[in-house]
Amino acid sequence: MSYDDVLADAKGRMEKALGHTRDMLRNIRTSRASSALVEHVRVDYYGTPTPLSQIAQITVPEARTLAIKPFDASVVKEIEKALMKSDIGIAPENDGKIIRLTMPPLSGDQRKKYAAKAKDLGEEGRVSLRNIRRDANKEADALQKKSDITEDDNRDLQDEIQKLLKEYEGKVGEVQDKKTKEVLED
Fold first, then answer.
1. Which residues touch 16 (CB under 8 Å, ≥6 apart)?
2. What residues contact 22, with CB distance under 8 A and at least 6 apart?
3. String of DSSP letters for 22-50
4. pLDDT in tens, 12-62
5. Nearest-CA neighbor of 40 among 84, 83, 97?
6. What's the pLDDT at 103?
7. H or E element that contains 57
């Protein structure tokens, strides 16, 4: 491994950590309908747990309504069961062909709870980034021990890794702030 490899590896891993944090935040409910809220729900599709997004079309016909139209009409009941079991807290309305989810407005307490959850997920993302920095710094130290890089190069590499950490912590902060704002507004 070289100086550039350590940096590229750290950047790639930080990008994945940011993407994971984004995905986790996407699952937090707001007053507005979003297909991301139910895409992860697993439905028993002929004995196989399958993500809802693979067996149905999910649309947002109105600001507070989700419409789920299965590609195979025979799984409507299974989708309804899976939505009832999920933690989204919304009762599905089934007309036989399409399932509708109407988002009730969030109460003040619910908003605070979801904002706190967004903050926790943002902090988890930052902790992941710091762990990646720690691992990359260990790799840099190992390169120096093997005499693959000089002490000055090691210091420069660790400075670059720190800059990368600050950049990605800022991105996680932006994503978290955006989600918190969505949760708190009506």
1. none
2. 175
3. HHHHHTS--SS--THHHHT-EEEETTEEE
4. 999 999 999 998 888 787 777 788 888 888 988 888 888 988 989 999 998
5. 83
6. 83
7. strand 56-62
Amino acid type, 59: T
pTM for the model stands at 0.77
Confidence at residue 97, expressed as pLDDT on a 0 to 100 scale: 87
Query: What single string gives the DSSP state of each residue in 83-118?
Result: HHHSTT----EE-SS-EEEE-PPPPHHHHHHHHHHH
pLDDT number for residue 186:
62
Give the C-alpha separation, 23 to 144, whole Å: 37
The strand pair at 65-70 and 99-102 is best described as antiparallel
Q: Name the stretches of the chain with pLDDT < 50.
A: none
CATH node for 3-26+107-184:
1.10.132.20
Domain with CATH 1.10.132.20 in the chain: 3-26+107-184
pLDDT for 119 equals 94
Orientation angle between helical segments 151-184 and 108-145, nearest 10 degrees: 170
CATH topology of domain 36-102: Gyrase A; domain 2 (3.30.1360)
**Backbone dihedral region of 27: left (phi > 0), alpha (psi from -120 to 50 degrees) or beta?**
alpha
